[in-house]
Amino acid sequence: MLRPMVIQEASTAGAPILIRADGGAAIGNGHVTRCRVLARALVAEGVPVVFLCRALPAPLADLLRGDGIRVRRTADPPIEDEAGEILAVAAAEGAQAVVIDHYGIGRNTEARIRDAGVPILVLDDLYAPHDCDLLLNQNLYADRTGYAGRVPGDSRILTGWRYALLREEFTDLPRRSRARPDPAATRILVSLGGADTPDVTRRVIDALGRARGRSLRVEVIVGASNVHRTGLLAAAAASPANIEVLTDVADMARRMDRADLAITAGGTTHLELVAAGLPAVLITIADNQELVTAHMSEQGLAVALGWHEQVNAAHIAAAVEDLLDHPTRYDDMHRRLAAFGPAGGAHRVARALLDLAHRDFALVPADPGDLMDVFHLSNDIAVRSTAFGTAPIPLAEHRRWYPARLHDTGGFYYTVRDRGGVFIGQIRLDRGDPGERRWTVTFSLIAAMRGRGLGRLVLRRALDTALRGTGPHRVDAWVKVDNAASLRSFLDAGFCDDGVETVRGVQAHRLVFRGE
């Protein structure tokens, strides 16, 4: 009979992820906003996050702190040694990885950080060259082939909709069916970014005031850093259309869901349009938006008007009228948008980043010298609390059991060690009936390594190391129903939940892995 086992991966604060990004009127808030989405996903994984910023509007800083994210400021005025400053902060914080989302930080700075042994995730929109371990281009046009020769050959590249960093309000947004808008009640949402330095929003307000034959209700969304807000309020009040100017709304998904059309720029908002299934007219207001707006137009996902310098109110008004009055164009655009799968890329990116941060551990066959490390870990209070036998293990009993287990040739026994060779955990695969290719797995990690996503990686690697290529096999494990962290580790490692059963008087999930 297989012996019930359980793994331990209790939550703890752990080492933080350091994110380097800036925001403000000059560069917009998009970099910080999308990194905030990633940060929230990391926090949900139990990983603390620290933002390192040179420029950051106070409202954005308040939002980050409200999420439980710490904010640190870089040197001001800027120092020349950006890499040195990032490395110094990373060392002071004990950061396990660095995220860089900044057009002003390039390959040379990244190379110095990476050469120092700090894993790097870079967010990119431009097919720029980078020296990183992990690269994310979340834009719809993105294709990993565009980075050939631009990043190291061993870099992992994440692209497109599957990894889009969208706020939680968009990930659960139910997509409604959209018919061509009623001319008597057409809702339009306008959002040209938080700052909109070239003041394109004023041209849009002028354009919508020229509407003929339609009753419009318009919501104009601007950021607190928009220096043109007073003028926009005046223009909206003077417009014949029903236009409301709102600042930093907290429910953009709901507003997009109820809108019939959006007029917006080609930044991260294009991903929100897809999540909401909302047809749009796009105006390019920054270099990093050119590929986005062109792709959206080519794929029939939006109408792209090109660069804002060449777009006036008449062009905008004509584009809106053409899309809304055309007999099939609006419906076709909505169908193309609705064909995308649900949003939810932030957690995928967070998991990829944690996989990167923890990649340097090693599995080493256990030997007699590990006896006391295994003893102390096995008697850790948290480990005992998740085991089915919670009483402490006497040292004399451990001294009898451990050598006998090392000589059991039917199973596998590894210690888990960090890059410096320090013991950080153990994992065993105990074989059941010798006539069956069936094992039971148990493992535990020291307190400092828990809650960092390492559990699923240890499981995956142990199964791959011990059993790959050996033919069909089955691995079982049992996890108490109140041990959510362990359950998640197993499911993420490819185990299936085979239901709840009673083990030694305790309710537990039976987890099963079947391999070839």
How many angstroms does the end-to-end distance come to? 23 Å
H/I helix tally:
18
Approximately what portion of the residues adopt beta-strand conformation?
15-25%
Task: Characterize the biggest β-sheet.
Answer: 7 strands, parallel
Helix/strand-derived category reads alpha/beta
Low-confidence spans: 1-13
- Rough outline: elongated
Mean pLDDT: 90
| Percent helix range | 25-40%
Q: Going across the major beta sheet, what is the strand order? A: 3-2-1-4-5-6-7
Give the beta-strand count.
Answer: 20
Rg = 27 Å
Task: Jot down its keywords.
disordered N terminus; alpha/beta; elongated; 516 residues
What does this structure look like?
By secondary structure, the chain is an alpha/beta fold. It has 18 helices and 20 strands. The protein has helices at 30-44, 58-66, 82-93, 107-115, 168-171, 200-208, 229-238, 252-258, 269-276, 290-298, 313-325, 329-338, 345-357, 371-378, 381-386, 395-406, 454-467, 484-492; strands spanning 17-21, 49-53, 70-73, 97-101, 120-123, 134-137, 156-159, 186-191, 216-222, 242-247, 261-265, 280-284, 303-307, 362-365, 412-417, 423-431, 438-445, 473-480, 496-503, 506-515. The model is unreliable at 1-13 (pLDDT under 50).
